[in-house]
Design goal:
This protein is of the alpha+beta class and 714 residues long. It has 25 helices and ten strands.
Length: 714
């Protein structure tokens, strides 16, 4: 870092070299013209050029040399004296202004005083010699008198101005020094507070006593071995001390759990990196103080957390702390295992190069271990020296844990995330990933509690959560209300994939109801919203899913809807009354007393035709019932209903393949029978029909509900 002394010396040296160069060129020209001798030029170089070059060499060796300015001014004065003796009075004046400029600019009152006195005395002596030699008399002494007066005026004025400026500068320096001392005191107190906090964090886990201190020592040793500056090594030490500060937000029950963590507990543990980064991001006493806390669990291969950064995109200090943190984890006893041997640790580090760890940093750590440079790092434990600050902070931590327990980061009944914790995690996930947000809501839950009791209601809630959990590993589920659960499926944006997930959920619910009579009455509605562009926020996504959930509720529940900007599309595979009756009639042709004869005959003709060809085409038979419905509270005239049905028929004709067959079931219902290779293919056909319908139908009051079933096994 360039200091004030560096700048002063640089300006003085450059200025002197420029003036000497100009004079040297000028005198060289006079020598060529015959106005000066080679001897004069040689003496000039000895007196001026050599001192100037010497000063430049001294500057290159030490830019901050305190005495360099005095050497330069002395050399400048010798040059001035040489030119004054050998030149004319006019020539002498050409050197006064630049020399005084240097002296005034760098406020050296003593230099101005001594230089002024010497200049006046030398000029008086020069005048006296000229008078003695008869070269000057009273009649032609005007130039000499002006010269003495100007010299005196210049130096006296410069001295006074520089003295005043010097006093102001000294006051500023004293004030700046006082501020620096205060800053040093504040920084020292901050570092002490950092150490106190680090000790308190470690105290939350009996198996990690001294962990932060050791990681800080290991990180500093790695940084030093990599050739980083002393200042940066110290900064890394303190950054590493706080790398686990986010564990303040993790319950002790999770930190000290002896067994394997559940998916929810592990996700909660992983949040300590984000929490730590948030706590430290606004503290500017050290650069990048939050970096170590937030990114020390990132992996070099991009498989770490919280952001999955790859390679050199991970901040350098975080890569150092990651290696130090892993080393301490392997070499200390933990709740789940004893410490590893030196040979195993080295093998693990070698194995992790380029995948978990930065290869260069990992190699530095391996060398430190092999050379036994880390053996003297001791746990920072001294129970007799715990001061009042630690005791107070520990009590604050205990109180904070009580509050956290009351807020319940994990829902006590279901074991999933509470709303506060879950919403924070879901927001972070939604901000980085595309996918679909799902809201699961138990139908008529209040009435169920009143009728069957709250114990039965709790049982329904837990069974619903278990079904949601089984849909995907490491899924984030949050309880947003008494009977409402929210989750996000990252990367799931295609409607057919969403259908597969929700259908699987309903299959699991129905299977549990069949296996356990105590679950009779359990019904769940699902609202889905898709995030396939980055601009959609969590709040907007949740609102969209909530709108879809509302429409599912309006249709009696037990189904799911996917929100679209243009419409709400029903995707329920939960059959309605008409569909149940239709399937029953198809299973047993004798039981069709309440079905219009013409309608039933048409249905059976189509079904018989399909049955005849089932041996010819060995693929699945699907029956789909499309029903035209109106939104709650929306009145639709008969003409509008007829127009919508006409559009639906055109959409079916456009989307259904040749093997598909269509029939009218009622005035607002159409049956479509399909022969498809699998359920996914038939779902795609249904999706196509709905998309075509909503492209052609421009009103909001009517939407299409559909139900379908596999007829292959009938």
């Amino acid at each position: 870092m360039e200091t004030k002394e560096d700048k002063i010396n640089h300006s003085l040296v450059v200025g002197w070299l420029v003036i000497v160069t100009v004079l040297l060129i000028s005198y060289l020209g006079e020598v060529i013209k015959g106005e000066r001798t080679i001897t004069y030029l040689f003496i000039f170089m000895i007196v001026t050029v050599i001192p100037a070059v010497t000063a430049y060499i001294l500057y290159l060796k030490n830019h901050s040399m305190n005495g360099l300015r005095y050497y330069i001014v002395t050399g400048y004065f010798l040059m001035y004296l040489f030119c004054m003796i050998t030149g004319s009075t006019n020539m002498v004046f050409s050197y006064i202004l630049p020399m005084l400029s240097f002296l005034v600019l760098y406020h050296q009152p003593k230099l101005i005083l001594y230089t002024g006195i010497a200049s006046v005395l030398i000029n008086i002596v020069s005048i006296a010699i000229k008078i003695v030699n008869g070269e000057m008399t009273i009649s032609n002494s005007k130039d000499a008198e002006i010269q003495i007066a100007l010299l005196s005026l210049c130096f006296v004025g410069s001295y006074v101005a520089t003295k005043l400026y010097d006093n102001i500068t000294k006051e500023n320096l004293e004030y700046t020094q006082m501020l620096n001392e205060k800053n040093n005191e504040i920084q020292k107190m901050t570092f002490q507070a950092i150490e106190t906090i680090a000790n308190t964090i470690d105290a939350k886990d009996t198996y990690t006593q001294g962990h932060s201190y050791r990681v800080a020592e290991y990180s500093a040793a790695i940084a030093k071995s990599l050739g980083l500056s002393e200042e940066r090594v110290n900064n890394i030490h303190f950054i590493a001390l706080l790398h686990d500060i986010g564990k303040i937000g993790v319950p002790d029950s999770v930190l000290n759990k002896p067994g394997r963590l559940t998916n929810e507990e592990y996700m909660l543990m992983k949040q300590h990196t984000v929490i730590g980064g948030e706590i430290l991001k606004d503290i500017k006493v050290l650069p990048d103080l939050d970096i170590g806390a937030k990114y020390h669990h990132e992996r070099y291969d991009g498989k770490g957390y919280p952001d999955g950064l790859l390679g050199n995109k991970i901040p350098y200090v975080a890569r150092i702390i990651a290696v130090a943190d892993a080393y301490d984890a392997m070499t200390t006893n933990r709740v789940y295992r004893k410490h590893l041997s030196k040979e195993i640790v080295l093998n693990e580090l070698e194995h992790g190069k380029g995948t978990q760890f930065d290869p260069e940093i990992c190699n530095a750590m391996i060398e430190l271990i092999k050379n036994n440079k880390l053996d003297d790092v001791q746990a920072h434990e001294d129970e007799n020296n715990i001061d009042d600050a630690i005791l107070i902070l520990s009590r604050v931590m205990e109180k904070n844990e009580e509050i956290s327990a009351k807020r319940a980061d994990l829902d006590e009944l279901t074991g999933i995330y509470s709303r506060n914790c879950g919403e924070r995690m879901l927001k972070e996930l939604v901000s980085k990933k595309t996918g679909c947000l799902m809201i699961f809501d138990l139908d008529r839950f209040r009435l169920l509690n009143e009728k069957l009791g709250f114990i039965k209601g709790d049982f329904f809630l837990k069974e619903t959560v278990e079904c949601i959990k089984s849909l995907k590993e490491d899924i984030i589920i949050s309880r947003f209300g008494s009977d409402e659960f929210v989750t996000f499926f990252a990367g799931v944006v295609l409607e057919e994939d969403i259908c597969a997930i929700t259908n699987e959920f309903f299959d699991k619910i129905h299977k549990r109801i069949e296996q356990n009579q105590d679950l009779q009455g359990l019904s769940v509605s699902v609202g889905v919203a898709i995030r396939n562009i980055d601009e959609i926020s969590f709040s907007r996504l949740f609102q969209n899913a909530d709108k879809a959930l509302y429409h599912s509720k309006q249709q009696g529940g037990g189904s799911y809807y996917i929100y679209s900007e243009s419409n709400l599309i029903n995707k329920s595979d939960n059959t309605n009354v008409d569909f149940e009756r239709l399937l029953k009639w198809l299973r047993d042709a004798e039981q069709h007393n309440d079905l219009p004869k013409s309608t039933f005959q048409e249905v059976m003709d189509i079904y018989d035709d399909i049955r005849k060809n089932m041996t010819k085409w060995e693929n699945h038979m699907q029956i789909v019932l499309f029903t035209l419905l109106t939104n709650a509270g929306k009145k639709v005239i008969p003409e509008e209903t007829d127009r919508a049905m006409d559009i639906l028929e055109r959409a079916i004709a456009y989307a259904v393949p040749v093997k598909g067959m269509v029939n009218k079931f009622s005035n607002t219902q159409r049956i479509v029978m399909l022969q498809c290779d699998d359920k996914r293919q038939s779902t795609a056909v249904v999706e196509h029909i709905l998309l075509e319908f909503y492209k052609m139908y421009d009103q909001k009051g009517i939407y299409i509900h559909y139900d379908f079933a596999d007829l292959t096994d009938m």
